[in-house]
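Quick question, first post here. What does this chain look like in 3D?
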Amino acid sequence: MVQEDKSFAYKRMIHDFTTKNVDEIADVLEVKPKLIGKDLFRFELENEDKTHRLALEIHLGLEVDGKKLNMVSVYSGGTFLQLHNCTAFVASKMLKQVTFFGKQNGITSGLIVEVGAGCSLYANVGDEILTGDFTKLPEDLMMCGVALSLTETEGFDDFTYEEEDDVS
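> Answer (accepted):
Ran it through. Tokens below.
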């Protein structure tokens, strides 16, 4: 199932990542992924001036102690970031970015990858920051609240893929 909000022109994919999801990410990031192994996809991005590059890797269905999880990794210069237990992503053509995130017990962590090889990480963010009035937050928290606000949706907990809609 794909949910689309015309005002932000984004698509939200939740829970089970598939090859079709990887294609949606490729469309927004404007780069083709390379398949490495069975369920590992690598995207290589660089900015227009070719002065900054990053590699994004999406591991689908890694098995740890009999449980499957998705993991997103970013390599850039001297930086390495990983988001474990990635439960969903929001791919925004308008913002030219993909927000990968995981939610657990009122806490959200998000990794944002931009078309121009930009990347941001927000970890262990409480629901009160994402659901409250972000204009009342201290400046440093306001940016986080706005960046991860796309991860909030009604009915997230009982979402299923039973009825897949293709939105063009």
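Residues 40 and 59 are 5 Å apart (CA to CA).
Confidence is low (pLDDT under 50) at residues 1-14, 154-168.
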